[in-house]
User: Fold these one by one.
Assistant:
Number 1:
Amino acid sequence: MALQSDSSAQREEEFREVFRNVYLTGFSMRVLLVTIFQVIIGLVLSAVLLCFVVFYALVLLFVIFGFDLYPPLDIKSMIKDLPTSTGGIIEGILGTLVGLALFAYLGPHTLIRFKRRLAARLYVLAGRPLASVEGHPTFEPSSESGYNGIEIGEFYFDFEDCLLDVKGGDLEEWERAGGVMRMWYIPREMRSGKNPRTGRLVKYNCIPLRAEWRPAALYGET
């Protein structure tokens, strides 16, 4: 029994921490400034989105019911130069939808992400329980550079809510070296779905806190 306990303790020591999610731990002036900037941008673009939605609603009221707000607005004058052909109308609708989607992503979506990170940080500061998963990691490369996330066992962790305290090249070295990774995460808002890259059913939407790694060379793993 003592031998088994010593072996287990040694196995624990073989893992070393390799990165943390700076959004949730410690203090960084960079994170503070980025967060303040994101909140300002989110509020401004959310207000712009709201103005656009109200304007297009007024345009629809005028087109359908002839309702105009004059004064202070003169909807009829504002839309008199808009194209009336079928092709022009379709292009206008598509352009409007794309614009609204962009503002929605940069505005409300940014604020939702801020709220999610803040709630996760408060969760950690309160000392509430964390969960972990251990296994061989599958790194998901980004279409531009770096990585989008890591899949471990039946869990997928994306990096959208992460600011890792490592260089991008470190993740590449661990992927080449192989080994086992243990990911600690906040077990909230968990969902299940297919990872588009691997097609596997995974649990996702858990914000990772930190990762520990054990090189494959320790056990001759491949």
Number 2:
Amino acid sequence: MAEKKREEFTVTDRRLFTPDGELRSESDIERDSERVSVAPPPPPPAQTTQSPPNAATPPAAEPAPPLPTAAEQQAQHDAYRTSTKDLDSKLRQELGGRANELEMTFERFLASLYMTALLQLGLVHEQGGQPQVDLIAARQTIDTLGLLQDKTKGNLTPAEQAFLQNCLYELRMAYVEVTNALARPPQPAGSDAGPKLR
């Protein structure tokens, strides 16, 4: 039987920062390149049992990668905190008392999803740009807010709960209006679409 050719490729780690949050140099990136040789996959085994034609066989489940250990998670958390410390101090110097406006809160998270859904519905757009409607993405964003409402039930402050309910109400209403408007047939250019007064 002919020997199968092995494929070779180079893997280069181009991450800009180390796990400790330090900036990597170009020489570090080049040094961490690794040449990998991969053998072609073996041919599938011959089936010994007869299966009916067109029978779908379930794909073999790949083993999940191992979860990081508690020590690895803590090290990554500490590296993240260290890498953001300098940025936070610079922001405090530049923004003064307004630096806390950049801290992430649950309400700011909800507001970002709310604005994303408005963009996806084409109700908000960049200045000078054209509205872009993406109903599938808008529905997923609204469903995400609904999922958050279900999963956070009993864990929100009254203000957070009211804000989430208002976001969902307004976005669902806007979604219905946009989908209804898109489903209407276009009106002829010269016709009057409104009711006629006598």
